[in-house]
Design goal:
heterodimer, A: about 325 residues, alpha/beta, Rossmann fold, six-stranded parallel β-sheet, B: mainly alpha, 16 helices
Chain lengths: ~325, ~350
């Protein structure tokens, strides 16, 4: 009996030593990985970075709705984690929880999605600048120095941050420059539906519209338009008549770039983990985080890939 | 006279959708006389294919037409609609892709196997819906709400990848055209599904049984028809339709996107059933009406795209036209119209009679 008690005691001691050896306690709240290729890559990026080997004791929660996310955040506060990382399903309703976390001395990082609250409630936000993505894409188009820009524009979910950010630079350019015309404008709807994009492109081609640029606001819809082009015998890509542009940099889409079937893919980076990791390590070492703007944001560095210069290495590194 | 009225009652259901279709066609011809012209083109695979708005409409409506047929059966037998068809379609597509990716290479045999397996899987999921509806007597819309909300997550889970790719000429043949055949393949799938159902209804008494169960379950049971069995059968046939539609959907892009495959098709399918003049409360039904409804919806969409309506307004215009069609087909308006028609006719014959007397 004594032996067993001693064993148990030893076990408990061992456990507590193990617990002490465990790293920085982090609670990570994300959206469901089945949401998109973007989210899948984002979740993987976080789980790959916040590992025990890297000095973390991380708990991951993926929840598609705001109430479950808030519950998870409250759980983390009770658990006395040191850091909470959030990609919020909804922009509002977080003030109270974030204030509680601050009171408990927990530092909060936002990633991918902003929350509508006072910037003092979080330490930093690592986000994409959708407008910059649009500007990069339009600048790339300009660099081609075509005689005419006749654009078939397929928008995403109207009113979403990604749609507005990617649409505005294009529509502004078309309004400002006579060489640029909007041949057709359509939307894939709330689900960014490739099939709807295909129908819009088919209708445009059937109507005899002449366009030389497809500007689709995500990869799936670009693929839908390409299906319509293929069916009608219109060539596209590097040596084709029509320039195809997509966004998001899914692996399969970048492969189409490498094959010369598409021309451009704009990145929307899901890789925020390394930046947050660095900031946490800085804070743990007693340093200060630098480079934040007035909203405590750090804007992800995002690229645009050109089919003429993309390499297999790019696909392996940046593909979702 | 009685015979004539019966004849009218038969076609009567189709009058509104036929008129709507006719008006849409006239509107398009008026707007652009060449709207329905058909041409030939060489596609990027080097095959001769038919092109033009008419082909686009018939081709694009394929998934909707197929699912609308199945939805009509479920509606007739159960007096309610299955709102999970889009989500179950995603599951079906995921199973299809899983089978194809699991094989060493994509051969015609593997594709057939994939279609059969995804068909079986879809029927299994539809049996879940059907059991809730027939055995547990849960309202169809509530029973199918379960798969409606979790079906797409299941589809994701099956492949564990957001957008698995299928690069194969066979898959392109399913979604676009078979080399040497200028007509898009989805159109043949619609015909196949239609013939299959027609055969079942012509050769067996299933159609009558479905109607009977939909009109009066108790009476059906007294006559030796098992309502549970008939309802399950209608869900099984819907399952076959859904899996065929999902295979077309996967074929169109050569990839599976579990978020967008057959997205929102449940609403359009229910609409097609309603536009086709079928009673959403069950009972008498006409498959041809629902198919007509599907093509009307697609023609409307294509018309709006062809007119270059701004993306913000497309849904509004679509809604306005559909409200008009549905209201015109409602029993109240229909009765008023037929009363007006008979008054005019009797008025006319009276006038003729008085003339004859004079």
């Amino acid at each position: 009996m004594k032996k067993i008690a001693a064993l148990l005691l030893a076990l408990v001691l061992l456990c507590s030593v193990a617990a002490m050896a465990e790293g920085i306690k982090v609670g990570i709240i994300n959206l469901d990985p089945s949401e998109s290729g973007y989210r899948q890559a984002n979740v993987k990026n976080l789980t790959d970075t916040f590992t025990a080997e890297n000095g973390y004791d991380a708990t991951f929660v993926t929840a598609p709705t705001a109430d479950k996310q808030l519950d998870a955040a409250r759980g983390f506060i009770t658990d006395e984690v040191q850091y909470i990382l959030v990609s919020a399903a909804e922009t509002t309703g977080w003030d109270e929880v974030l204030a509680d976390a601050q009171e408990a001395g927990i530092k909060v990082f936002l990633f991918d999605r902003m929350i509508d609250c006072d910037p003092s409630l979080y330490t930093a936000a690592v986000v994409s600048d959708m407008r910059k993505e649009g500007e990069t894409a339009v600048a790339w188009l300009e660099s081609l120095e075509l005689d005419e820009y006749k654009v078939l524009h397929i928008q995403g979910q109207l009113g979403s941050a990604a749609q507005i950010g990617r649409s505005d630079p294009l529509t502004e350019k078309i309004a400002a420059d006579d060489k640029w015309t909007m041949v057709r404008e359509g939307t894939g709807g709330d689900s960014w539906d490739p099939n709807e994009a295909r129908k819009i492109a088919e209708a445009a081609i059937n109507a005899g519209e002449d366009f030389n640029i497809v500007y689709a606001e995500n990869d799936g819809m670009a693929d839908g338009v390409v299906a319509a082009l293929d069916a009608k015998g219109i060539t596209h890509g590097v040596d084709g008549d029509v320039i195809v542009m997509g966004f998001d940099c899914n692996k399969w889409a970048l492969e189409k770039l490498l094959a010369g079937e598409w021309n451009y893919d704009g990145q929307c980076s899901p890789f925020q983990a390394a930046v947050i990791d660095e900031m946490i390590k800085t804070l743990e070492a007693g340093g200060e985080i630098e480079g934040l703007n007035e909203l405590n944001q750090i804007i992800s560095d995002e690229k645009g890939f050109d089919a003429r210069t993309i390499t297999q290495e790019d696909i392996d590194t940046y593909g979702l | 006279m009685d015979k004539q009225r019966k004849l009218f009652a038969g076609i009567g259901q189709l009058i509104i959708p036929l008129v709507a279709l006719g008006l849409l066609i006239l509107f398009n011809l008026f707007r652009d006389p060449g709207f329905f012209s058909i041409g030939m083109a060489v596609n990027n695979s080097g095959n001769q294919v038919l092109t033009g708005n008419l082909i686009s409409i018939i081709d694009s409506a394929s998934e909707l037409a197929i699912i609308a047929m199945g939805m009509t059966l479920v509606t007739a037998a159960c007096g309610g609609q299955d709102i999970s068809v889009g989500a179950v379609g995603a599951i079906s597509g995921a199973v299809f892709v899983k089978v194809l990716l699991g094989a060493p290479s994509i051969t015609p045999g593997i594709v057939v196997l994939g279609v059969i397996l995804c068909c079986l899987a879809t029927i299994a999921f539809m049996m879940f819906n059907g059991t809730l509806v027939s055995v547990f007597k849960i309202q169809p819309m509530i029973a199918t709400l379960i798969l409606y909300s979790c079906g797409r997550s299941i589809a994701y889970w099956i492949n564990g990848d957001a957008t698995p790719q299928l690069n194969s000429p066979i898959i392109t043949s399913i979604g676009m055209t078979i080399p040497g055949v200028p007509v898009p393949t989805p159109i043949f799938v619609v015909i196949l599904a239609g013939l299959l159902l027609l055969l079942i209804f012509r050769r067996t008494t299933t159609g009558l049984y479905v109607q009977t169960v939909g009109i009066n379950q108790g009476a059906a049971r007294l006559n030796g028809i098992d309502p549970v069995l008939i309802k399950l059968l209608s869900f099984a046939l819907l399952g076959v339709c859904v899996s065929l539609a999902s295979v077309i959907g996967v074929g169109r892009l050569g990839q599976l996107n579990h978020k967008t495959l057959l997205v929102d098709i449940e609403m359009d399918a229910i609409l097609a059933v309603a536009i086709g003049g079928n009673n959403l409360g069950g009972g008498r039904f006409r498959l041809s009406g629902s198919i007509l409804g599907a093509y009307i919806i697609q023609m409307l969409t294509t018309t709006l795209y062809a007119m270059n309506v701004s993306p913000v307004n497309v849904k509004t215009y679509k809604a306005i036209v559909i409200i008009i069609i549905v209201v015109a087909g409602s029993p109240v308006v229909k009765n008023r119209l037929s009363a007006l028609w008979s008054r005019m006719r009797s008025g006319g014959s009276q006038a003729a009679a008085s003339k004859g007397a004079g």
